[in-house]
Amino acid sequence: MTGRSDGPSTSFPGNEVLGRSPALNGSSGSAYTGRPRRSPFQLFPPLSDDEFAALKADIAVRGVMVPVIVDAETCETIDGHHRLRAWSELRAAGVRVGPCPRDVRRFNSDAERVEAAVSLNLARRHLTREQRRALAARLRSEGWSLRRIGEAVGVSHPTVLGDLKIGKDLPIPEPDRVQRQGGGTYPARRASIIVTSDRDQDRAAEALRSLGDDAPAKLLDLNRAEERVRLANLTRRRAEAVNGPSEHSGPAFDLRTGDFREVLVDVADASVDAIVTDPPYNSEGVPLYEDLGSFAARVLKPGRLAAVYAGHLRMDEEMELLAAGGLTYVWHGVNVLPGRHTKIRHRMVFGQHRSVLLFSSGAYRPRKWIHDLVTAEGRGGPEERSLHPWQQALEPVQHWVRMVSEPGELICEPFLGSGTTALAAVLEGRLVLGSDIDAGAVATTLDRLKSATGEQSA
């Protein structure tokens, strides 16, 4: 039974069902405990007691198989009220049932929400005449044509005309467009993200709101949608920073805009206490590991460490290139990642950690015990997560700063990105020298440092 859409219930007298997602009523996995309310998008009659019991029994065995549709802006349930109610009641009763999948979508108006609620339920069971007339009146008030209403409720448009006792028809919108009540059209398809937890529902809604009209009209992966947001923010910062200075300095930091092989060429040999860096892992970025190795071998003090974040798929190449640059392999650290994990589909692997390679300049000279594993607590709040397409969590970077250096020492980061390493170094009482080829990334780093320390740039 859960293979079909159970549809939004009608707002007929006496019908009270769930109108909001459980994301608004507790942590992930918790049952809905809020007071039932009527939703303006519950347009169809409720399931009978027997039908609801059958749906509930099916969900108890197979789980919710059709995602509940949730509005990104209001968190209102657009479709799937019965599924959500059945799932919540089962969880409240202690039944072990999997998470309820939610399809978070962005709508521009209530007219679009009504359109979605109806279009998802065209194959519903028969309506009585009174139910059909009530639904037709509601859709007519939304500006629907008689023919379109007839298609939705399964009758001819003359029958709809008789139900409503009106005699004026309206044009039917083209199949690939949906007509707005106040004029104009919008695409029938819209941006959509499938999620299975309260936390991810909030993330999806935030991403769709941030993307706005730039969200592509298709099903999106949550991580890819958030990456689009970060890239859009970085593009905005590039435009803002393009006419600014190329260097920024303060008592604890020195930031430079440009390729590290050029703008850090003046760094003296054997003058840096440690390198903590997160180079790009893509095909264009991997060759940089050899130049990074050469730079680190030159500027690091003898026996000091470079902690280098590395990608999994080409780690063998990355390690060979760091060694070819003149560094010596010491150890392999791990950042354990929380939450839903990356699927490497062609390897059939769930990626649950980030690798951190430890290399030294010449023979390693241990100074302290190193803890090689740290658990990330996420990517911070919404503002922090939106800083950069490849944003890293702050806490693990602070851990590696502590492992490879002492307070007052100089940390170098040739790939600043959003400035997480720079911020971690300053928060841990270190000095930082950093660069990035992207002026927007340098500007973001500067803002984060100034916000954390109150220092003014020069």
Describe the model.
With 458 residues, this protein is an alpha/beta fold. It has two domains: 22-227, no CATH class; 240-453, Vaccinia Virus protein VP39 (Rossmann fold, 3-Layer(aba) Sandwich), CATH 3.40.50. The protein has helices at 49-62, 81-92, 110-119, 129-141, 146-153, 157-164, 198-211, 222-241, 260-263, 288-299, 315-324, 382-385, 394-404, 420-427, 439-453, and strands at residues 68-71, 77-79, 102-105, 177-179, 185-187, 192-195, 219-220, 247-250, 253-257, 274-277, 305-310, 327-336, 342-344, 349-351, 353-361, 373-375, 410-413, 431-436. The strands form four sheets. It has a nine-stranded mixed β-sheet. A five-stranded mixed β-sheet has the order 2-1-3-6-7, sandwiched between helices. Helix 4 (129-141) packs across helix 5 (146-153) and helix 8 (222-241) packs across helix 15 (439-453). The protein is elongated, with a radius of gyration of 28 Å. The N and C termini lie far apart (66 Å). The model is unreliable at 1-36, 167-182 and 380-390 (pLDDT under 50).
When the domains are counted, the total is 2
Percentage beta strand: 15-25%
Shape: elongated
The largest pleated sheet is described as:
9 strands, mixed
As a percent range, the share of helical residues equals 25-40%
Please provide the count of β strands: 18
